[in-house]
Amino acid sequence: AASSNTEILGISDPTTLASVLADGVKKTVSDSRVDVTYEPGFVPAAPPAMPNIPPEHLAAMIKDTVKVEILDGDIGYLKIQHIIGEEMAQKVGPLLLEYIWDKVLPTSGMILDFRNAVSGETSGIPYIVSYYTDPEPLIHIDSVYDRTSDLTIELWSMPTLLGKRYGTSKPLIILTSKDTLGVAEDVAYCLKHLKRATIVGEKTAGGTMKMAKIKVGDTDFYVSVPVAKSINPITGKSWEITGVSPDVEVAAEDALDAAIAIIKLRT
């Protein structure tokens, strides 16, 4: 379509051209996640290796992305910005238990604040979900199809965990916003449809599990596309593109107050 449009071909500024192409592609495929950019000198980022630093230093770094509080009414509050993966969790698990989990474990209700959670590792999903479910029977949490490898990975709850589970009887509320993105959306969607958590806040961004940036020919233009898809075994659908709809819809800035009121009512 662009090659036959002389007006588009006449755009001399590459950044403007990328913006016009991005707008056209998003409308054509009805997917807001797809993007076209002009990035001269772009160097693909290598997958981050596990830092070779002491576990206590790693734990300190993670503490910077997790805020823990005990609110009035004996309510545990965890604000999470990044969901760590399996490798990191195994390395710093005992310290995370001491600094974070053991503080909120005895509470009568819990709030997970994902309103600013925009990154995470897929391997961290079973960890979080398992702490709020029973050890048996095992639960098929999610299936993730990776187009680059043409493989589907099934995510299951874990029979054993480091530390104690929060269990299935105490209230659990997840706060969301229009900025909640990716892996955090998956956790919220899974716990919602397992009927283990109540989602309070705004509909989430409708992101993806994994993005790839593909170079367009011998140019400095790149197309960013989703290359993995989440398929929930309960709904047979995905939260991607459409986002996770809250059970109780309120403005993001009012979500915490609403969650506290709901937990106090239930307890």
TrEMBL record:
**Keyword Amino-acid biosynthesis: yes or no?**
no
User: What biological-process terms (Gene Ontology) are attached?
Assistant: proteolysis
Alphabetically sorted, this entry's keywords are: Receptor
Q: Could you tell me which residue ranges the Tail specific protease domain spans?
A: 54-251
Glycoprotein keyword on record: no
Q: Which GO terms describe its molecular function?
A: retinol binding; serine-type peptidase activity
Q: What is the protein name stated in its UniProt record?
A: Interphotoreceptor retinoid-binding protein
